[in-house]
Amino acid sequence: MTVLAVQSETVRLSSPATRPRRISVLGATGSIGENTLDLVGRDPTSFAVVALTGGRNATRLAELAVKHRAELAVVADETCYAELRARLSGTGIEAAAGADALVEAASRPADWVMAAIVGAAGLKPTLAAVRQGTCTALANKECLVSAGPIFMREVARHETALLPVDSEHSAAMQAMAGDAPESIERICLTASGGPFRSWSLADMEEVTPKQALAHPNWSMGPKVTIDSATLMNKALELIEAHHLFSVPAERLSVLIHPQSIVHCLVHYRDGSVLAQMSCPDMRTPIAYSLAWPNRMQAPTARLDLASLGALTFEAPDEDRFPALRLARHVLAAGGSASTVLNAANEVAVQAFLDGRIGFLGIAALVEATLGRSAHISATSPDSVDEVLAIDAEARAIALSQLRTFAQSAQAR
Ligand code: NAD
Ligand code: MG
Which of 67, 76, 139, 230 has the fewest CB atoms within 10 Å of its CB? Predict the structure, then answer.
């Protein structure tokens, strides 16, 4: 196990307190982006907003840019540019659109950037921030799942502070602070188990998108909410932890904890276990990354263990939630298997939301795509463009598997 990038002595610390910290938010209009700006807006003299980006919601992006007096607002979808420009006209805020503009926004000099675009779409902009050496708060776990070795190589090359925002990985970082990596025996990520934790396979077969989008504890964007219901989110997080903390798969585990209070447990070789606890509100891990290496005030509910009464834990059921097994498979396989898993999962989640496959079809489609991708899984890409080419090929295979699924469903 090697030291987490953020604990490196070469880390660039926050800018002097004499001026506001310059920050950018990639994916500003999403759940993590909005939560980040909620914290920033509560302490406006401490922060100067450089760039905000969004996918398609130009109206909300413009509102946020005006409210936080951003220098630049970028919408990913070029067809939304006219609306963004019109809404920002006369404000002095620059408007731009498209993939290159996203990279440009991420490259603008800043002290801190939140990487909160969803999916592999966030890879190039996030890497652009990393390559500037900008302290990067990473919510976009798909970056590490899709391109872990290349991503971490760039983090090391540019001596960038990489701060995990995922609550489990933020918890792990907090529980490991200052300890020698060799003293850590195992890292255990907790999972709520999602809304179908105790459902039978037969009942899970009938799950609708509306049911799957209703997470019991966390309020999140649609993709990560579906990932949480299938436990694919925990599968992605195992891969994320493997790259972030350089921990081999056999020293990573998952525990179901329905209350979502304990976010991670770090087991030490002397038998100690250190855990981090907080109420399930992403503003706590976001605040940790925003104030790091200090702490800031966060307007979150305070933990009251007496009124909670009990915290419970159980082992995950990999028969009903095969995503965890798939994560172990791709970690063992190496190469590009996890790029394929991520791409296939993005296709599968969208297909489920569009009503094209059932809930159990999500993991089945990912597994079928992995089964048909041996020729690309075996390769170890050396550049982001190669990763994105493999990602595109895996999506094409997933889409063709999707058609096969639909034909066999019709035949039944
Ligand atoms: P979200 O769907 O609410 O927001 C995603 C953001 O990315 C939005 O601003 C959207 O406009 C933008 N976007 C979407 N497609 C894009 C594209 N093709 N190009 C550029 N921008 C695009 O998602 P979220 O819940 O905020 O999650 C963001 C990331 O953080 C995900 O990787 C997720 O797994 C991770 N994460 C989220 C939570 C949470 O509580 N929401 C917790 C841990 C990790
Ligand atoms: Mg998480």
Answer: 67
